[in-house]
Design a protein that fits this description.
- The mean pLDDT is 91.
- By secondary structure, the chain is mostly helical.
- The chain has a 3-stranded antiparallel beta sheet.
- The protein folds into 2 domains: 97 residues, no CATH class; 189 residues, Isoleucyl-tRNA Synthetase, Domain 1 (Orthogonal Bundle).
- The longest helix is centred in the middle third of the chain and has 21 residues.
- Helix 8 packs antiparallel against helix 12, helix 10 runs antiparallel to helix 11 and helix 11 packs antiparallel against helix 12.
Length: 300
């Protein structure tokens, strides 16, 4: 309230029919009420106070406010007003909007009774992932459950994060659990495959060494060095889909390279280099998955 009152004295806010408003038209926006006729603060005023307090109490370097697309107009005006009354806070604050998730087959609707919660979606995906693990060998049921949980969460997170920010998401439970192609489990499985190669190299005592590379540069090598710039771009643009796209590309490149010939071979003097490249891939995809909040299991 004090911020708005101060802004009113400075001409940032104006009185209109007994209320205090911000006329966003001067910045190509629309007018919004900040203090009602009854003298009570609106959400707009509370947002100004909240953002001021965040930077005062928590000493933030940057604040990203994430909401659904419906709030975009609200935050356009709030941030415009903030730039006038709290310029230092506004310079370090941004709003990022997101779309809605719908299941394959149509939108979720409370009227039709097919709204689902995040918790129930995760639980359903756990059940599906556990069933998918049924044919695979694990040391015990606990390990199988742990991997199934990691796969379920990967399937959901990847499906959301592969979309450009602000877009609506169509979620296909079956496709999201696929070990082939555009999915979180596909990336996890590529990491598992690389780790299996490295365990074999360790068992056969073939060391990794960045020497005697093959004459022809592989697509995998061409892609791997781009990881830092991809991450920097994703952070700068608030677009995690750059990371998912990159990880899918290097997983595909690794799988193609993996299929071309034996990696661990004591009789091949290029084997240490191939193992080193496998090691680089495993580290990169694990770090990339970590950035997305996705686990990288050792076995699947």
């Amino acid at each position: 309230m004090k911020i708005v009152e101060g802004g009113t004295k400075n001409g940032v806010f104006e009185e209109s029919d007994g209320a205090i408003v911000y006329k966003g038209e001067k910045k190509g926006l629309h007018t919004r009420v900040f203090i009602t006729k009854a003298g009570t603060p609106t959400y707009e005023t509370k947002e100004l106070g909240l953002d001021y307090e965040k930077f005062q109490k928590q000493k933030l370097d940057h604040s990203v406010i994430v909401t659904a697309n419906e709030q975009s107009g609200f935050f356009d005006v709030v941030l415009a007003a903030m730039a006038d009354v709290l310029p230092e806070v506004a310079a370090k604050t941004e709003h990022v909007a997101h779309g809605f998730m719908a299941l394959v087959g149509g939108k979720m609707s409370s009227r039709k009774g097919n709204i689902i919660t995040g918790e129930s979606l995760i639980e359903d995906m756990r059940v599906k992932a556990f069933a998918k693990m049924e044919e695979r060998e694990f040391e015990n049921q606990e390990e199988k459950r742990s991997v199934a949980d990691a796969v379920a969460v990967a399937a959901i997170k990847y499906s959301i994060l592969k979309q450009a920010t602000g877009k609506n998401i169509v979620f296909d439970p079956e496709q999201s659990l696929s070990f082939e192609g555009d999915s979180g489990p596909y990336l996890q499985y590529a990491h598992v495959r690389a780790r299996a190669v490295l365990r074999k190299a360790e068992a056969e005592k073939v060391p990794a060494a960045a020497k005697r590379p093959p004459e022809e540069v592989s697509e995998l090598e061409r892609l791997l060095y781009r990881f830092p710039s991809v991450v920097a771009r994703a952070q700068t643009e608030n677009e995690p889909h750059h990371v998912t796209t990159f990880l899918t590309a290097i997983a595909s490149a690794f799988n193609s390279w993996y299929a071309q010939g034996k990696i661990v071979d004591m009789t091949d003097d290029t084997s240490p280099y191939k193992i080193a490249l496998t090691e680089a891939f495993a580290a990169t995809i694990k770090n990339g998955l970590w950035l997305l909040g996705i686990q990288a299991p050792e076995r699947m």
